[in-house]
Design a protein that fits this description.
By secondary structure, the chain is of the alpha/beta class. The chain contains 11 helices and 11 strands.
Length: about 325
């Protein structure tokens, strides 16, 4: 009897082990909450090509843009929790509940974090006519010239909007928000002098900085960017404690087996070590992070609290 029981336990353990090793058993879909062609979409496709080779199954990228990334987020939250559907989440995953009156998912309860893949390098820049070359000088100028500065964003409730409002609050200044539909028109007005200040992604602002059409003051992250190692952070350039880090990372539906999460994470970690991948990320204006599921889960919780306060203090709304 005992032998039969032990044999049964051994068979069950073998079956569980086999199931864990079997993942994935079918194509894996990466859902991207943005339209094709942008940095996030390009990143997802580059990672998908390499994950396909390591996972032994096709990796399909499916774009579901719209509603501040909520369409894609809700779709994945309701997907089968088997590891075969994952979301390339952005910062907006946790910010949306503070910005929108109705959000059909919980950013903590409805997802299983896999890894925070990269941060999107954002910078603070000004029109060259401003007599400032540091964040400290910009703050001093803004305080001496109240009501004279307009800042542009890529839309109400976006990361560039909230980064600017965090700056306003922490620096004790008041710049006027002018929202645009994307970086391109906002940068045109910054270059033309209709805007004085702008927070933006380095990928879109870099060419204007290099041509001398805008002046780069700082990066928004807590530490200097690997892409721009000689550029100071906002914190070290005049506003201690300031940090804003737009991010991209993979999450799966809540309830996804740990074996699937760990396998995806392990293969992704190896892909992120590849020199070609690192070079491509730099070209996209991305700094690789690649943390653990546990670290990513903790980061998401803190990020939600941080930006909810900024939204409340600024009165920002997206609907």
């Amino acid at each position: 009897m005992i032998k039969q029981l032990m044999a049964g336990i051994a068979l069950a353990a073998a079956a569980l082990c086999g199931a864990a090793q079997a993942y994935p058993t079918k194509p894996v879909t990466i859902v991207v909450p943005f339209a094709p062609g942008g940095a996030a979409d390009t990143m997802a496709r580059q990672l998908g090509e390499r994950l396909h080779k390591r996972l032994g199954q096709p990796v399909i990228v499916e774009n579901k843009p719209g509603a501040g990334t909520m369409i894609a987020s809700e779709y994945v939250a309701k997907a089968a929790p088997d590891g075969h559907t994952v979301l390339l989440a952005a910062s907006s995953l946790g910010i949306a509940p503070a910005l929108y009156s109705k959000v059909n998912y919980d950013p903590v309860k409805d997802f299983a974090p896999i890894s925070q893949v990269a941060s999107v390098v954002h910078v603070l820049e000004v029109h060259p006519s401003l007599p400032v070359k540091s964040v400290a000088e910009l703050i001093a100028w803004l305080k001496a010239n109240p009501g004279k500065a307009n800042y542009g964003s890529v839309g109400a409730g976006t990361s560039t909007h909230l980064e600017s409002e965090l700056f306003n609050t922490m620096a004790g200044v008041k710049m006027t928000h002018v929202p645009y539909k994307g970086s391109a028109p906002a940068l045109m007005d910054l270059v033309g002098g209709n805007l004085q200040v702008m927070f933006d992604a380095w990928a879109s602002s870099g060419p204007f900085v290099r041509d001398g059409k805008t002046r780069l003051l700082a990066v928004t992250t807590a530490q200097r960017s690997k892409i721009l190692p000689d550029v100071p952070t906002v914190a070290e350039s005049g506003l201690p404690g300031y940090e804003a880090m737009p991010w991209l990372g993979f999450v799966a539906p809540a309830g996804t087996p740990a074996a699937a999460v760990n396998r995806f994470h392990a293969e992704l970690t190896e892909v992120l070590k590849e020199p070609e991948v690192q070079e491509r990320f730099r070209n996209l204006g991305l700094d690789i992070i690649g943390n653990t599921p546990e670290q990513f889960a903790e980061f998401i919780k803190k990020d939600i609290v941080k930006w909810a306060k900024v939204v409340k203090d600024s009165g920002a709304r997206a609907d």
